[in-house]
Amino acid sequence: MVERKVIAKIGIIMGLGMAVTVSGREAHAQINLNAGAYMTPAVDAHFDVRLNKIVPGDLQFTNSSGKPVTLQRYFAKGVPIIFMMPSYKCKLDCAAEMHGLAAATKSMGLRLGKDYQVVTVSLSPNDGPSDASAAAAAAWNGLVGATPVTGWHALVGNERNIVQLAGNLGVHYVQDASKNHFNNPTGIIITTSGGRIYRYIYGTQFMPSYVQSSLKEAAEGKMGIPTEQQITYCFGYKSATGAIGRRLQQLIVFSGCLTAVLVALFIGLSLLKEVNGRKKPPTVTV
Fold this sequence. Notes:
Number of domains: 2
Radius of gyration: 26 Å
Structural class: alpha+beta
Mean pLDDT: 75
Strand order of the largest sheet: 3-2-6-5-4-10-11
Shape: elongated
CATH architecture of the largest domain: 3-Layer(aba) Sandwich
Largest sheet: 7 strands, mixed
CATH superfamily of the largest domain: Glutaredoxin
């Protein structure tokens, strides 16, 4: 009986090893379906905090209706602005941060379009007005309807103005040679009505009360103070292949190996205990 248990447990360990090998190969195959799917490591994507710097109002973009606009148009409204620079065609964290911002605005006591505005500008010069409209609608879908209310401005632009705005906002991102995939930090930048940077809020989900208090302080003209950077990154994504990046592959393989080692260790210890118990001579009572 003991021999059968030993053989069975050895078989389990060997099976785990084979499963880890196969899963690693499958992960590698899935992520390498298309050459060039990998992005530069996330350390290259970050926010250069530029509190109290003024965003130039003469930068020109195109709104979701296809009309040319300058940022000065939004500064002239006299209310604080939430800036975000995603990639509209990205289905990962860029979409998540837009949805997260939409959810936060729905839960705030402030009125979008009257007490503050939202301006999103795509990092991709290949995005057009229809992409801006679709991304904004997707962010709002299920919240207050399929179309953003007045006050959310989804813009696109040429590479020169995108790079200049990103530089002024401190959005340090990396794009691949095709200029379709980006590695960028996720978060929002709040400015005063005149375009002075007041606060950075990082991540893809935003606490409504914190965003609201930041907007109120920006509306009062307070000076920006540094906050702790806790940044998530949006990696390049290829929808045709489902490829995300080398780090995902490494995570899958590492998790599989760790699981196999822990299970093998548990089985090995129980096996050793069982064998030692088998060798122990019976106690004879006289």
